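Collaborator request, handled under Task 6.
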Amino acid sequence: MAKIAHYKICFIMAGKKEGRYKRVQLQLKELFIRNTDIQSRMATINAVLYHKMDGFFWVGFYLRKDDKLLIGPYQGPLACLELPKNKGVCWEGINTGKSIVVPDVHEFPGHIACDSRSKSEIVVPVRDKSNTIIGIMDIDSNVKNNFDSIDSEQLEMIVALLFQH
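Structure tokens returned to the collaborator:
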């Protein structure tokens, strides 16, 4: 009986999380009607997610410049200004072209610790209109196992809003 109750709680929580993401998407779409600047949209996504989602300790973008990943707009504590090539979760997302969910950053080989309070992480590649990866959205949590496939799916939809008019 306890397992059934646990699954019901997980289902309710998943539904609550999806609902929150849907409300965030609607809010962003409304805000983006008035502004198409990519940097402005990135900053707005960061602010909305940072303040509306549970356990989002750091929310930001790293942008490709030549063969580097440089900090872009973000919310949260100070971040690494540049990420070493082909190291860490962000570069893994860039190199694979896929979203990456890391339940425990201390178990991820080559993890870059910009802030020691980070416990879990998710990254989502940012693609421009020609489908070229121009950067990565990076979100850290100070809670282990804070991200799952719902976050991945919903954040991919939010990142796609960057280039929609």
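The cover message to the collaborator said: "The chain has one domain: 2-163. The two ends are 49 Å apart (CA to CA). Please let us know whether this matches your experimental observations."
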